[in-house]
Records
---
Amino acid sequence: MWRSMRARLRSLVRLTGLGLLAAALVSAGEPSEQPTAAADEPARPGDAGPRTVLVLLGTGTPVPDPKRWGPALAIVVGDRSYLVDAGSGVVRRAAAAARRHPALQPSKLQRLFLTHLHSDHTLGLPDLMFTGWLASRPTPLAVWGPPGTAAMARQIEAAWQDDIRVRIEGLEPRTTRNYRAVVHEIEAGRVYEDDRVRVDAIAVSHGSWPAAFGYRFQTADRTIVVSGDTRPSESLAKACDGCDVLVHEVYSAAGFARLSKPWQAYHRAFHTSTLELAALANQARPKLLVLVHQLFFGATAADLVREVREAGYAGPVVSGRDLEAF
Ligand SMILES: [Zn+2]
Ligand SMILES: [Zn+2]
């Protein structure tokens, strides 16, 4: 009952841009393991192509929270999926979401955009490479990511060389080498384009990483901007500029106050507080702000939303949960 209400509210936000009341109610929902029903929304009148849906696969961080798997999300456009990041459990989370979004079946996970190479965002890379192969992915995995991505993929292949040999030379009737990752190391700017989507990489500032990116996906019906891990980066506000959805990482400002000085210095350089995000979102003016990669430091999901509001952001904002679709 509550779930279907959440889905209807989300649908309202999407279809009409009506945000405030809906988002306040949405953000008050109880945590749920169930996927929501956003995929059941009808297409907008006059829509020609397939509808674009954002599916959160993992909304977690390095903290091994059993309800929040490693960072990963998917932009689904009809029968095609575009993944951002490969956190722990990405293929199984996608398989769960595939019940509603068939483009997330393991064999259809063919395109991956990595924001940066921190382990929480890449632990699922071997999973995508090899599980997709075993699920008869018809192509190698195409990966876009910062410098260092190609070396990582090569070393993953080397680490699993015995598995590859046994599967190809043993009794499995397996002939392809589609475990491979075809890597495109990127700079900021347009990195991908097909007949459904244009993808731009946005340079962001993530502490001492020499290269870290957010991504902007533009389709026929929506513009979705994903922050990746970052401290407040004006480049994201510019990339969004009234976009449909801004998916942004965040940490609790109240929780941060309780951290030791060295950890405060770390988080200030690498991540974005609720207060900083409120200011950034006021610049970016998304139709919906979705919090992911939430560092709670003892706060709750509702606390994070409240902190963002109290810091002066009045637009629609929700605390994202695994398997939610927007
Ligand atoms: Zn991270
Ligand atoms: Zn990171």
---
Amino acid sequence: MYVIGRKQESDSHRRANLKYKRNNREKLRLKDKEYRERIKLKVYNHYTHNDIKCKICGFKEIHALSIDHINNNGAYMRKNKIHGLGRDFYVWIIKNNYPDDLQVLCMNCQFIKRSVA
Ligand SMILES: [Zn+2]
């Protein structure tokens, strides 16, 4: 009887949760986006000493900046599931205490770096 009681409770709880998610999809999406932006800023600020810009050319538009592997081993790291992409990557960086073989570069400089490597 207690088990059924708990089960009913957890079922209704689960349903309420689903309903909340359904009714607040936009709100949750924004919350997720905010979280992503926050940890991204945290990581960028770390590598740029709170002056977010490309390490090579100084370009400041954050949407054109990304984390670059100094040793060009990004593909290796992703392929071997050492870290993921996007938010997972930022979380990984923080958890790993900001590895020092990373830097912030703009897309132009990354492309140039890759083509001369
Ligand atoms: Zn640059």
